[in-house]
Amino acid sequence: MMFDRRALMQTALSGVAGLLAFPGDAFAQPQGAAFSHATVIERARAVAAQPFVPPRPVPKALRALDYDLYRQIRYRRESAIWGTSPTAFSIQFFAPGFLFESGVEISVVESGYARRVLVNRNSFETPSEEIGALLASVGQLAGFRLHYPINRPDYDDEFIVFQGASYFRAVSRGQAYGLSARGLALDVGEPGGEEFPVFREFWIERPHADAHAIVVHALLDSPSVAGAYRFAVYSGAPTAVDVDATLFPRVALEHVGLGALTSMFMHGPVDPPDRPDYRPAVHDSLGLAMHTGSGEYLWRPLNNPAALQISAFVDRNPRGFGLVQRARRFADFEDLEAAYERRPSAWVVPRGDWGEGHVQLVEIPSDSEINDNIVAYWRPAQPILADAPYRFSYRLTWPDHAPPRRGMGMARVARTGYGLSFIGALPQFAIDYAGGSMPDGVLTAEVSASAGQIAETVVQELPGGGGFRVFVTLDPGPAKNVELRVAPRIDGRPAGETWLYRWLGG
Q: How many independent structural domains does the chain possess?
């Protein structure tokens, strides 16, 4: 699975602020219908009891729009919801077409009543009358974005977007869009192909005038499962989303991914580009981080492999995991347009008992940075059966740094370098650690390899008291791939994250 989201991201950013009031004739029901999250749960239960019906595609003329035409379709600023109302939040919508081949229904909830948003000829600015008439005839939307002044009080920033399948993405203060989250992942990397659940309907609650959070409900559907989702969205530094989901499987879900994240990695210090590139790195995320149920911190640098790679990090009740962007200087990327140094990390903190399972990392070969080729999620050890609802919840934050620094008390992997040793031309890794509190003691590293042998391990302090470096030289022998593990220690106690890596030899 690779998701082309660069055009999607740019389209989302093409909107404007300065939003005005929402016109009174844009709702389907003047009074609305009573609504609560129980409404979504019962809707999902009823949908799951029936055979799956694929979303109806929009007319071919809309699906055939190219990127340039589609980006000219803009929701009219005078139609923005709550633009001049007492709440600081406002909503704008996306039109179906181009990559978004089917529509969704969206309702606004006020005082416990839901009213569906209508689409008419005046909802969008369009490049032609024909496109406007088509959108009005379809009567559906492709998704929405929420605005809130997260960077300065006089400007309503777009900070979270729900658009496409079950994808959503967010930014915090000072960030630019990067990786995405997903409501649910099914059969990622399986030989029979991946199943992509979709959000078919949304309900957005109007927040109080002084609220800093907004609640979104969604109905998820796919051939295998239906589900009711509640997203409590908190804007700011960092933006956070509390996710509560109830699944109603139609069949046993053998391969399901909870807290799924999707990102892009092309090349970096440990995995150089296959062809010359003036940029030293190109990625939305540098590595997978994990805080295990036993309290260990893990760091796994990402790869852009020559063949599909799937890794599993077994755990019970993980405390957190995520895809993390640790390179934060312009010099790390040297890209004047993409601003990869401003891309968010995403950190999942499970709530309740997630039991036994593993964090699954899928790395997909890619030759284009417009494709998302990295997927990470929690995969329960046991299938989710179809005989009862399955509930799970987690908090998802979009910070600059993850896992949270508070209470960590140990060094993090700041950089991984790769090369060949002077003697023997053996694979050699330089793992730089920074931060944390470094008590006096003997600094060592416990190093292991799944094949071959460790030829040499050297631990050295970095200049200026900025941390330390672990050199690891691997003699792989005949092995074509080797799992490496490096755990720094001070007098036998953890001194930093445990570094994991899959070396893929030639």
A: 2
